[in-house]
Amino acid sequence: MPAPESVLLDPDLSPHPSLDADWWRQAVVYQVYPRSFADSDGDGLGDIPGVTSRIGYLAELGIDAIWLSPFYPSALADGGYDVDDYRDVAPELGTLADFDALVEAAHGVGIKIVVDIVPNHTSNRHVWFREALASPPGSPARARYVFRDGTGPDGSLPPSDWTSHFGGAAWTRLHDADGVGEQWYLHLFAPEQPDLNWDNREVHEEFLTTLRFWADRGVDGYRVDVAHALAKDLSEPLRSKPETPGVLPIDGSDPLFDRNEVHEIYAEWRGVFNEYDPPRTAVAEAFSAPERRALYARPTGLGQAFNFDLLKADFDAAQFREVVEFCLAQAATVGSSSTWVLSNHDVVRHATRYGLPAGTDLDDWLMTDGRQVALDAEQGLRRARAAALFMLALPGSAYLYQGEELGLHEVADLPADVLQDPIWLRTLHTKKGRDGSRVPLPWTGEGEGYGFGSANPWLPQPAAWSHDAVDRQAGVEGSTLELYRAALRTRRALQTGETLEWVETGREDVVHLVRPGGWHCVTNFGSEPYALPAGEVRVASAPVASGLLPGESSAWLTDWPQG
Ligand code: BGC
């Protein structure tokens, strides 16, 4: 079969997708958790100049964009998702000039920058919240947040039964100087993260200003935190949430989440995105009934929405295929492209998930420092590599989480005294939370913090990471880093249309998909080897000998003769 011309181009010569306004549709976006990426000044915290110093690494990896988790001033009550000032850089992470230098360096090598916008809540140190605390009930300063009188005879009971995602009530009561209780305020996350009132026009204006502020500095897109929760039904009496936790109605009738009105906010944001050339992009972190996810991804809204279906699936052929079919169909209903994610800063890393028996309660497992059930680390990594190749062969955008390209595992045995996640505190030490996925990256097999840049990174790194470090994997055939590099290079060269077809394999545990132009991905979820079809193996997650794909591995093939 002759290949389309673009497919035969040398990858280095093919047009970079970021030159195009649709660059995001099939981009590989790499999530940087700034405090854990690279520390340029030796204070134990990663920072913005640290990211800039590693732009060469990211370019060589072959990504299209960086998504920066929050780098704004913050007391870190929730790892930076408690923002003090949306239009500045945390002093310990750098300055606005450092940020500009990062954008320039990234753009210089064709990498886009996406920033995290956190519109559901500010931090309790934000100037608005300080004003609200200093102002009386009913004042305009309080109207930017959700303040209510308590219930019960002396107002000592919360205004409703709403609970925080991090455990405990979603309301905290204020007390005056004499310790007398007064109003309560809403926080769907930590008490240090008061929810904004999106019925207030001032809140809208503030975020439009913030979006323009970053777009004017050259930012290419936004990741919108908790995008489903901004519009709330705050009419009295406040309604209880539905009985079944985690299941949201498909008619938008939940009092707090995924309400129809939330899309009016994003239609207005779209107006701002389209003021720029190319238009700025956005991706929603939205939890909704699965059928409603695409509403966030409309071209008149944010344009794209995360789905975490692949991340939640077991390493299983039927589950993976079902997720792909569903998500592609959903995105297509609104003309968007699907997103794919295996790991991020909120979940146990996928190399670890796949090395534990399906159904393991990860919170419980972490509480035993990973001892409750034995982790098969090798199997986990083998499967993680296979899943990564599968994901990277799909049409749509792949979101990678820093360190997955090194095959890093979750750090399950962080000692209690270093844990910083509010989940640890708010669940009264019954859940460890997410710190184990946020441990600073190893860059070198030796040296301070394995090349992170400081002797005492803010979370301790395991000794085993010496072997996983970038310099131990770079140039080493078969390493996970080289697998990702080869995959991203090949993907860029082969990617054409946004469709796929399934090819019958005769095995329930083997999935074969083909993209336009004859780019095949075969994933063997089982343990028995599988005889690959004819074609040239371009990338494989495990050695392919005599045309046999080993168990728990993936291979990419092209079916035309290569010149
Ligand atoms: C972020 C979390 C954060 C939460 C509250 C999430 O979706 O990814 O890390 O704790 O929003 O802002």
Write up what this structure looks like.
The protein is α/β, with parallel strands linked by helices. The protein is built from 16 helices and 17 strands. Strand 12 and strand 13 (519-524) form a beta hairpin. The longest helix is centred in the middle third of the chain and has 17 residues, at 317-333. The protein is globular and about 80 Å long. The two termini are 13 Å apart. 50% of the residues are buried. It binds beta-D-glucopyranose. Beta-D-glucopyranose is lined by residues 78, 81, 118, 189, 225-226, 285, 345-346.
Shape: globular
Quote the distance from N terminus to C terminus: 13 Å
Determine the mean pLDDT: 94
Number of helices in the DSSP assignment: 16
**Category by helix and strand content:** alpha/beta
How many β-strand stretches? 17
Classify the helix fraction into a percent range.
25-40%
Bound molecules: beta-D-glucopyranose
Strand order of the largest sheet: 8-7-3-2-1-10-9
Secondary structure topology:
Blueprint: H1 5-8, E1 28-32, H2 48-53, H3 55-61, E2 65-68, H4 96-108, E3 112-117, H5 127-134, E4 147-148, E5 171-175, E6 181-186, H6 201-216, E7 221-224, H7 262-273, E8 281-284, H8 309-312, H9 317-333, E9 339-341, H10 350-353, H11 362-367, H12 377-392, E10 397-401, H13 422-426, H14 465-468, H15 470-473, H16 480-494, E11 501-503, E12 510-515, E13 519-524, E14 530-531, E15 536-540, E16 548-549, E17 553-558
Parallel strand pairs: 1-2, 1-10, 2-3, 3-7, 7-8, 9-10
Antiparallel strand pairs: 4-6, 5-6, 11-12, 12-13, 13-17, 14-16, 15-17
The structure holds beta-D-glucopyranose (BGC).
